[in-house]
Structures are given as structure tokens and as C-alpha cells.
Design brief:
By secondary structure, the chain is an alpha+beta fold. The chain is 59% helix and 8% strand. The chain folds into 2 domains: 30 residues; 303 residues, no CATH class. Helix 3 packs parallel to helix 10, helix 4 packs across helix 5 and helix 10 runs antiparallel to helix 11. This is Regulator of sirC expression with transglutaminase-like and TPR domain.
Length: 339
């Protein structure tokens, strides 16, 4: 009986100790309650590359933002779209011919789409700031997209058609990388009808450092796992930034970086999350001298982490956009849309 009481006392002490450590942020990951979103994302990211279904991954992540999303129904809709492209291309079509039919199916007006093609939302949300505009189901419903939703649909359909297509990034922008039957890679700009664009064009319109190119954070085709970690998870990170949940942002960014260590978006989101925590601290204590002694260590840790993650991004070649970056980006989008 004394042993049972002793064990119970030890257990209570351990629980109290773990609670204290949790408050300090140093509880081992396995000892903490696993956040449901983290559990879902980890299951996706721990799949072997050939087992990753990008369409399902996208919808599972989007459903964390909008629980009303019908995953199976949307997958069935994608299958119907892919079947229509395959039938139009014919049984003996080469990869490049199927890609051209897919491009026309999505972006040219015709009876196959009731003369309502998918188009870039130049007037409504051209910079892709609205979370809803990045959800696949919203894009399918409205046919108005941005540089997240538009390449996403193209890649998901291309992969269902057996084409070698994936995502690539330039600063604040995603596009499609496609390799044809000859082994040649093309950049396809879905915001302007899926037409090819040269590397030099992206490097001119969305400037990137030689260091960034050397480190592969821009312009290269992403693996499926990298695509999930950055293109798809980044929408969830934006959702939690908008919701004012920086701790959640940090936890999700950590998971993304675990599987894609060069994920610039996750680094920047993590740095921004620490800024939000610093801002909350400063709202509570307007002057540094107002911070109680027992909380100063945490405040300094927040400042260090805020600097750390921006410095990590800069070390890979990322640079802070200047004041005119958004205006130049808009001009680029208008230019490619008119070509």
C-alpha cells in the first residue's frame, strides 16, 4: 500500500514537473500532447515519395482550414477532368501533346468548359492574400485563381495524366515545371494561360540572388514531399498567421523544415511568428524596463529567434523585398497575362 502511495506521489510530481517544463517550452516532443493538425501533417510528410498523392495531400491540408471540404468528391471531380483531357488527347498522344491539351482544357474558352476557362484573379486578389483564394475547391468553384491555386490544379491534373510536372518557386511566386518526352524541362506560367516562360524572364521580373539559385531555393523542380511542405503547408501557415496563432505557426513550420530544411517560406513564417509574440509582449509591457525580471529571459529568447530565422533565410540567398516589390510583381503579372 505504501508503495502504491509512493508511486502515486512520484507520478503527481512528474506531472507537475512536465507541466512546468511545458510552460518553459522544453518538454521533449514525444512527451507533449500532439496537436491534431501536426498529426495530420506528419502522416502526410512521412510517406515515402512514391506514395504521396499530391491531390489528396492538398485537400487534406485545405480541410484543416475549411472542414466542409469534400475530399472524396473533389478527387472524383479531378478524375473526371483528367479523363476528359485524356480522351481529347487520344490514346497515342505524346506527353507534350497531352500537356498542350491540358493547357487548352483549362485556359481556352470552349464547349468543354461552357466557354468559362480558369483565369487569373487580377481584379479580386492578384497577390493571393486571401486564404480562401488558395483553396483548391474555391478555385474549382469560381475559376478565379492566383499563383498558388493555378499551378496547383495544373500539377494535380498533370500527375493524374502521367505527365512529369511539379512546382517551382521564384520570390513570392509559384509556377509549373514540366518535362516532356525528350527530357527537356519547361517553365509553364499558369497565371498567363500555361504558356512557357524562360528562366531569365523570372529572374528579371522576380529578382533572385545567385546565392539563392545556387542553394536551390528558387527555380528548381520540387519533389512531392517538398511540394507538400512548402506550397501546400504554407497556405495553412498563412491561415494561422491571420488567426493570430503564432505558436501554431512555429510548430507547423518546424515540421515543414524537418522534411524540407531549405523551406524559405517556413523560415520566414517562423521568424514572423516570433515577431508576433514579441509584439504581444510589447503591447503588455510598452517599455523594456516594465518587463518583470522573471519574463526577461523569454523576451530575449523571442528576439533571438526572430533574428535567427530571417538570418537563416538570408544565408540561403533570400532578400527582404523592397517597397516597390508588390508594384513590380503586379506589372509582371499584367505583362505575362497580356502575352
Amino acid at each position: 500500500m505504501d508503495l502504491v502511495k509512493g508511486a502515486a506521489k512520484v507520478a503527481r510530481a512528474m506531472v507537475a514537473c512536465m507541466a512546468m517544463l511545458a510552460c518553459m517550452g522544453i518538454v521533449p516532443a514525444h512527451a507533449q500532447r500532439v496537436d491534431p493538425d501536426i498529426r495530420v501533417l506528419r502522416a502526410l510528410l512521412e510517406k515515402a515519395e512514391p506514395e504521396i498523392d499530391l491531390a489528396r495531400a492538398k485537400l487534406v491540408i485545405d480541410q484543416l482550414i475549411d472542414p466542409t471540404i469534400d475530399i472524396e468528391g473533389t478527387l472524383a471531380k479531378l478524375d473526371v477532368m483528367a479523363a476528359a483531357v485524356r480522351a481529347s488527347a487520344g490514346p497515342r498522344a505524346k506527353s507534350s501533346e497531352i500537356a498542350q491539351v491540358l493547357r487548352s482544357y483549362l485556359y481556352d474558352a470552349g464547349p468543354w468548359n461552357n466557354r468559362q476557362p480558369f483565369r487569373f484573379d487580377l481584379e479580386g486578389d492578384p497577390l493571393g492574400h486571401k486564404i480562401a483564394g488558395k483553396l483548391l475547391t474555391n478555385y474549382l468553384a469560381t475559376k478565379k485563381g492566383n499563383c498558388v491555386s493555378m499551378p496547383t490544379l495544373f500539377v494535380l491534373l498533370a500527375q493524374r495524366l502521367g505527365l512529369e510536372a511539379t512546382f517551382a518557386a521564384s520570390p513570392n511566386h509559384y509556377f509549373v515545371k514540366y518535362r516532356d518526352e525528350t527530357g527537356r524541362w519547361y517553365n509553364l506560367e499558369t497565371t498567363s494561360g500555361g504558356h512557357p516562360r524562360r528562366d531569365e524572364s523570372y529572374q528579371r521580373d522576380t529578382p533572385m540572388t545567385p546565392q539563392a539559385l545556387k542553394n536551390g531555393i528558387y527555380m528548381r523542380p520540387l519533389s512531392k514531399k517538398e511540394s507538400v511542405a512548402t506550397v501546400m503547408v504554407d497556405v495553412l501557415l498563412d491561415h494561422y498567421k491571420d488567426a493570430g496563432k503564432p505558436e501554431k505557426v512555429i510548430a507547423i513550420a518546424d515540421l515543414a523544415l524537418e522534411h524540407y530544411p531549405s523551406d524559405i517560406d517556413a523560415m520566414l513564417d517562423k521568424g514572423y511568428a516570433y515577431y508576433l509574440l514579441i509584439r504581444d509582449f510589447q503591447n503588455k509591457y510598452p517599455m523594456p524596463r516594465d518587463i518583470p525580471p522573471e519574463e526577461r529571459q523569454r523576451f530575449r529568447a523571442l528576439e533571438r529567434n526572430n533574428r535567427l530565422w530571417y538570418e537563416k533565410a538570408e544565408a540561403l540567398g533570400w532578400r527582404e523585398p523592397d517597397a516597390g516589390a508588390d508594384a513590380r510583381y503586379m506589372e509582371m503579372l499584367k505583362s505575362v497575362k497580356s502575352n
